[in-house]
Design brief:
14 helices; about 375 residues; 2 domains; two-stranded antiparallel ribbon
Amino acid sequence: MLPFTYAVRNLFRDPARLLQTVGGAALVVFLLMTAAALNQGMNEVLSASGSPKNVILMGKGSEESIERSEVHLEAESIAATAIRGLQESLGQPAVSGEITYQAPLVTDSGHKEQGLLRGVTEKALLVHPKVRLEEGRFPGPGEVMVGILAHRKLGVIPEEVGLGNSVFFEDAEMTISGIFSAPGTVLESEVWFDRNDLAILTQRDSLSAVLVRLDGAEFEDVEVFTLQRNDLELAAVREDHYYDKLGAFYGPIRTMTWLTAVMVAAGAFFGGLNTLYAAFASRIRELATLQSIGFRRRSIFLSLVQESLLATLTGTLLAFVLALLIVDGMSVPFSIGTFRLTLTPTVILAGLSVGVALGTVGILPPAWRTLSPALPKALRSN
């Protein structure tokens, strides 16, 4: 076996080539880790947003989008009394009629951006148990409550949507009365209005949906209710299934993220291959000399793999540092909310696997070209 120091020494024979190899590996690993974090973050926020205990009552024909749904106002009270086995708190059934609306909001600084608005009453807390009031109070007339990630959705700094500040919707000034969190869900990007205020401002006399939270009841009980009350024109959808469908809707976007990352990574990978080809082509005589003094091709190949792994794993380490500084904790807005990028063990393992693959699989073509010539021919090479 060739000593390990031989591989280390060869790394620094050409500093420019070393920088290219390390930089290329770092770019490939960083891009693929970012793509993995994006896909995982979006999947997690959508799966966490829907509860298997919640059922959404929506208008028939609008099961794909709460925003397009219209439900009669009386459906909330009828569902609360007609469906048995709903979860209760202090004798109050967990039933919440809500209005969901996307529209531009204007902040105090004049910045205008599309926001996801939800008109609610205090009953909303019964069906959204993950919601926690961090500061202030629940919104009353002329007030709103914003999620802790709403600033990312609106494209402003957090202080601009802080407690006591104002946002403007349809020329109406709304004071921010509270800040809430709902860890891991799309709710954290929303702006919650008093339901009556949002109904007046949007000029609508109907709800978007009625959410009910099950206790002893089953989903089939809610379905039976919708069939019995044909006059309400309701359809029942499990909340977790609704967000699963949204996840499928965003599938092409996740695929494009992967394709873009893979295409850029492929360019860096093949650029690295060219660098290795050029570097090893100049060492054919050197490696042939090692064979002539008794070292087997297998030993030389393992030394080349060590050399390649040292470079690519250094690039992988650099990619980890960059991902930790840039990617980890970053919040990314999309149409229905915001999700955070996190360097989970799965993402880190994916990055490490790519780094190891670059150092082992990537070395095979240039190593084969370098070691395949017959020994007499290799010794005569320039």
